[in-house]
């Protein structure tokens, strides 16, 4: 495989002409002011399919105005 033999050139910031103050947190244009964990999902609805699963699914989707 040629990909395993291909060398990867590693360049430093000075090699590409970028100042360290332009990258990372000091060079960021935006800042995260607040972050929260996602709330846990609500428990879903389980439908035992006894031949009417498709109908119950269609009713659920219509109720939520998804179709």
Structure characterization notes:
This protein is an all-alpha fold. It contains 2 helices and no strands. It has one domain. It is 22% helix and 0% strand. The longest helix is centred in the last third of the chain and has 11 residues, at 53-63. The protein is elongated and about 65 Å long.
Topology (SSEs and partners):
Elements: H1 2-5, H2 53-63
Which percent bin holds the helix content?
Answer: 10-25%
Shape: elongated
Number of domains: 1
How many helices? The count is 2
| Cα radius of gyration in angstroms | 27 Å
Average pLDDT over all residues: 87
- Stretches where pLDDT is under 50 for at least 5 consecutive residues are none
Biggest sheet statistics: none
Brief characterization of the structure:
This protein is an all-alpha fold and 67 residues long.
What would the keywords be for this entry?
0% strand; elongated; mainly alpha; 67 residues
